[in-house]
Structures are given as structure tokens and as C-alpha cells.
Amino acid sequence: MTAPNDRGVVWLGSPAFPEAAREALKDGQLRANLRRATATIRDKRLSVSAELDDWEQLRDAAAAIKQHTARHLDRYLVQLEESVTAAGGTVHWAADAAEANRIVTELVRATGGSDDETREVVKVKSMATQEIGLNEHLAEHGITAYETDLAELIVQLGDDRPSHILVPAIHKNRTEIRDLFAAEMGRHGIAAPEGLTDEPRALAEAARRHLRHKFLSAKVAVSGANFACADTGTVLVVESEGNGRMCLTLPETLITVMGIEKVIPSFADLEVFLQLLPRSSTGERMNPYTSAWSGTTEGDGPSAFHLVLLDNGRTDTLADPVGRQALGCIRCSACLNVCPVFERTGGHAYGSVYPGPIGAVLTPQLVGVDSDTKGAAASLPFASTLCGACYDACPVKINIPEVLTHLRAKVVEAEGGRTVEALAMKAAGKVLDSPRLLTAAQKAAALGGKVLARDGRIGRLPGPLHGWTDSRDTPAPPTESFRSWWRKNREGGTS
């Protein structure tokens, strides 16, 4: 069940990350699915990126373009509006989720028929529309939105939630998908064929047959956008299955919902991003389908094009000199595929449409750690080991560990310094600032270690401290501190 919070960002209703992760870790099948899928994508990405001698230079160029655009975002958005309008499109500005949902709903209704007529729209995978809860809002107004991306279709048929940016159904294996198709496809359109197997070819064919009549009958399509070029008004969608091409060309009306951070200065900048994105996301040298359009053209594609530019917390994020890095994300999911935390918990544990490391830095900024969902959102910056693998993998060089630590400090400040971590650090500061207290603490630790240690390790700490030892091997404190040893062996004159 989705629900908007006071910042207009849809929260998926999960508990805080520690609780959600604890439940996810109990699911052995989930961990096996994630481990197999992420390992495959990681290996492919490393292989194809190594083919380019200028891979690091491309990353530098992409980071520079994104940083430049963020500094001049107002200018490029105005230029984009002018270019789209000149090409025959219409631009709408949406400050939050409610406004974006209202705009899209009114545009769908304006395509003809009575206001209460049940309608159908086809969709190209879009995280922005998931963020604002567009499907749910359309359903409340008698409009059914059909996801056409294979993984999104799987999620929709299962009344499930996406768990990955690139592969939303990464948490399911082929057998689970076959069973879902057999049980649910008939309720939403053309049923799966009898005797459906779990072979990828058979599953893809079942999905193609199911969706074909939706493509041919829908009058309206809703899409996201990977990039929009300010100088030409060109909007791009990259995908792997061809469903996007069908949605973007067959319906009479095309509505694109795009976060304002997706704009780039010029069409020429695509030369950089279209090398980085496919290699970082799917491990391919190029996307099988790259669709680009500028406004409308008579007799070719949709006769009406609407671009909805979504803020929804992005300008607030832009105001933070450190946190704004997250807006450079091109949604490749490379950070998810290398993250040891994501690999073990999956995307649902993050409680947001943006999972993994990028979600841990983007969601708290869009939602705000002082919002109604602060208990869940505020836990996300701590959902990391700070190993830095995400920073190494990011094609636009977002320093995710830096943003994580920055947001952790904000969470502590928002909670008035009353978190367990803050209190522990405050106490440690007092001890470390006093030689007398430090000596006493070391002696107490050594004594406690003698009582609790087994085979040189602490078995289980008492009270609330057991959470540390339950999940870690903790060496017993030394029986003699370094300071004590130094006094005996150095200050006493021994060599």
C-alpha cells in the first residue's frame, strides 16, 4: 500500500531499514536470486567497461556535465521548455506529486469521452511515476495503467513492488515468474498459454502476446525519460525489449513525466552518457533500443506530446552542496549491483522506489528526515558499510559514502543528538579526553573480557549491547593496555 507523505513523495510503507532487513535476511531464496543476478551483471559491466581505454575520462566528463548542469539548472530548464514548445510539445511544471498526478490525469481525460469513462494507458518503465504513485492515482479516477516492461509487468501482475532500479523483479526466479503468469495473466487480458514453461523465450513470448493488443488499442502512453536535451528539446528513453518503442510511437498522445535533474545542456552531451549508461547498467555496449523525439511531427508518431517536469523535493536537495551530488544519478543501478548490503537484503528493505546506495542518499533528501516517514527515511543513510564500492562503480562519480556520512550527521542533528550512536560518541569523547578515565575504562574492559571471553572472543554482551556481538566476532580486550606496557618497557628505561 502506498501513501504520500507531507513532502509529496510516495513512501511504500515499509518499516525502518534495520527491521525490514532483518526479515529479508531470513529469506534464503531471495538472497540466492539476488546473489546470482547481481554477480552476473557485475561481471558483464567490468568486462565491457574494460574495453574502453578512456573509461575514466568518460566518467570525468559525465560528472563535469552533471555538476555544471546542477549549477545552472534554472537556465537549462527554461531553455528546455522553449525548445520543446518550439518543436510542437507542451511543457507542464509540477511542484510535487499531487500536482503531477493531477496534470497527467487531466491530460488522459482530455483525450475524449466522459470524465467517468474507464480508460487504459500503456506505460514505459518510469521511476518518476512510481515515485509519485501515478498508477494508484489513475486507478482512483477510473484509469488503468498497464506496465509494458517485462519486469514491471511481473511486479504489477503479482501486486508486488519493484526491488531494483534496472531489474525490478530481480527478487523472483524463472519458476516463480512462470507460476505468476499462469495464475494472473488471464485476469488482466490474454492468458498465458497452456503448459507454459520457465524458459526465458517462452516467458517473453507469453508477455508479448499479453501486451500486443494493449499497444494497438491504447490512445495514451506515459513514459519516463533518461535524458532531455535543453538545446534541441529532444527527450530520450533507452530500453532493451522494444516495448518502449511501441509505447512511444503508436498511441495518439504521449505524456512524459521527468524529474528536473534529467536535463542536460546539449544533444552532443549524449555522446558521453550513451557510452556510460548501457555498460554500467546491463553490461551491454549499447542499448538495443534508444528512442529519441523532439516535440511532434505530422504523420509520424503521437500527434500530441506533453512533458511534465517534476520537482518533488529536488530543488531542496539542490540547495545542499554535498547532498546535491545524488541528483547526478543516471539510474544505471551499478551501485546496487556492487553493494554487499543490497545483495543480502534486496530492494524492498529500503522502503522506497529508490533502493540500494543511491536510494540511501536520495530518498532521505527528497522525503526529509524530519517528515512523517522520518523513522524509515532517517535509517537509510546507515544502511551501508561505507566500503566505497558504489563510488568506484558510479559512472558519474557520485561520492555516495561522502553523502551517506553527511546525511548521518543531519539525522543526528534532527534528533537533537539523542541517538544511541551520538550518546556513545559523546561518552567516548569524554573518556578519550581524560587519561584517568581512559585508564579506568581499559582496566574495566580487561576485567570484563576475562569474564565474558571464550577462546579469545566475547561470546555475548549483556543487555542492549548484545546486538553488536550477535552479528559480529568481537575479540576480547587485551589484559594489558598499550599505555601500561609502554610505562613498563619504555619509560622504565628498558630497551
From TrEMBL:
Keywords: 4Fe-4S, Electron transport, Iron, Iron-sulfur, Metal-binding, Repeat, Transport. Coiled coil: none annotated. SUPFAM superfamilies: 4Fe-4S ferredoxins (SSF54862), NagB/RpiA/CoA transferase-like (SSF100950). It holds the Pfam family Fer4_8. It comes from the Bacteria. GO terms for biological process: lactate metabolic process. Residues 326-398 form the 4Fe-4S ferredoxin-type domain. Residues 462-495 are annotated as: Disordered. One of its GO terms (molecular function) is 4 iron, 4 sulfur cluster binding. Residues 79-296 form the LUD domain. Residues 414-489 form the Lactate utilization protein B C-terminal domain. The keyword Ribonucleoprotein does not apply. PANTHER family: LACTATE UTILIZATION PROTEIN B. This is Iron-sulfur cluster-binding protein.
